[in-house]
C-alpha cells in the first residue's frame, strides 16, 4: 500500500510537477488547494478540474478570505508589477501565505496519517519570496514535529518535501515532461485576462516563459495576443 502524502496543489506549473514527482516516488497524493480571495482564480478552477486526473486520491479545497488581511497585489487593489519592474520582495508576496498553507496541510496530514508533505517552492528561479527559502522550510518542519500530537507521541514524523527548490524553471519543466505532465492543463499568471488568458508580463508568466524557452520547448498555455514573450 502506498504511503499517503499531502500535496500543496495550486493548479500551476510547479505544484503540478510536484504532484507528478510524489506519484513517481510511490506516494498516494492527497491534494490540498486554497480559495483565499486570490485574483488568479483561473488556476484554482484548473486545480479543481484536474486534481483527480493527475492521480489525487482526494482533493480538499480550503476556503477563506485573506483579502481582509490585504497587503498583496494578489489579494487587494494593488497593481501587479509587469515587465520585471518591482522591488526585491515584490507586492505579489502574500504575507505569511506558505505558513498558512503548510499549516492546513499539516493538520490534514495528521488526520490522514500522512506524514509527508510536498510543496513546490523554488529558491532559484522565483520572485524573491522569503517563504520559499530552504531555511524557512527547515524551520517549519522542525515546528511541525514540535507542535503536533503525532510529533510529540512518536506516532509519526513529518517531512516537508521540496523537490523543486534547487532547480531552474527549465529543469522543472524538463522533469515534468519526463514524467508525462501536460502543461497545457496548468496556469501560472498572477493577472489573467477576463477570458483566463495569461498576461505574459507578470513575474510568474515571465519566469514560466523563460523556463520553456531555456528548455527548448513551446509553452502550451494560452496568452493574450499582444503579450511580449520572454526570450
Written description of the protein model:
The chain is of the alpha/beta class and 231 residues long. It has a single domain, classed as 3-Layer(aba) Sandwich (Rossmann fold), CATH 3.40.50.620. The chain is 34% helix and 12% strand. The chain has a 5-stranded parallel β-sheet, with helices on both faces. Helix 6 (169-178) crosses helix 7. The longest helix is centred in the middle third of the chain and has 16 residues, at 97-112.
What's the domain count?
1
Which bin fits the share of residues in helices? 25-40%
Query: At the fourth CATH level, what is the homologous superfamily?
Result: HUPs
In percent terms, what proportion of residues is strand?
A: 5-15%
- Provide the low-confidence segments as ranges: none
Helix/strand class: alpha/beta
The main sheet comes to: 5 strands, parallel
Number of helices: 7
Strand order of the largest sheet: 3-2-1-4-5
What's the overall average pLDDT, rounded?
91
The end-to-end distance, rounded to whole angstroms, is 45 Å
CATH structural fold name: Rossmann fold
Number of strands: 5
The CATH first-level class comes to: Alpha Beta
Query: Tell me, what's the shape?
Result: globular
Give the SSE order as H and E letters.
EHEHEHEHHEHH
Amino acid at each position: 500500500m502506498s504511503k499517503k502524502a499531502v500535496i500543496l496543489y495550486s493548479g500551476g506549473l510547479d505544484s503540478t510537477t510536484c504532484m507528478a514527482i510524489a506519484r513517481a516516488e510511490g506516494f498516494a497524493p492527497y491534494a490540498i488547494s486554497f480559495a483565499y480571495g486570490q485574483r488568479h482564480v483561473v488556476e484554482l478552477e484548473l486545480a479543481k478540474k484536474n486534481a483527480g486526473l493527475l492521480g489525487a486520491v482526494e482533493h480538499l479545497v480550503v476556503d477563506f478570505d485573506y483579502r481582509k488581511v490585504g497587503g498583496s497585489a494578489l489579494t487587494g487593489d494593488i497593481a501587479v508589477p509587469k515587465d520585471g519592474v518591482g522591488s526585491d520582495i515584490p507586492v505579489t508576496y502574500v504575507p505569511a501565505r506558505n505558513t498558512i498553507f503548510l499549516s492546513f496541510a499539516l493538520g490534514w496530514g495528521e488526520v490522514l496519517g500522512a506524514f509527508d508533505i510536498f510543496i513546490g517552492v523554488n529558491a532559484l528561479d522565483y520572485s524573491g519570496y522569503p517563504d520559499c527559502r530552504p531555511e524557512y522550510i527547515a524551520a517549519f518542519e522542525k515546528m511541525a514535529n514540535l507542535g503536533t500530537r503525532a510529533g510529540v507521541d512518536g506516532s509519526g514524523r513529518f517531512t516537508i518535501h521540496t523537490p523543486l527548490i534547487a532547480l531552474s524553471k527549465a529543469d522543472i519543466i524538463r522533469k515534468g515532461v519526463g514524467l508525462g505532465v501536460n502543461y497545457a492543463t496548468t496556469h501560472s499568471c498572477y493577472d489573467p485576462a477576463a477570458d483566463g488568458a495569461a498576461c505574459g508580463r507578470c513575474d510568474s508568466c515571465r519566469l514560466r516563459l523563460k523556463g520553456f524557452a531555456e528548455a527548448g520547448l513551446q509553452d502550451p498555455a494560452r496568452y493574450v495576443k499582444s503579450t511580449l514573450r520572454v526570450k
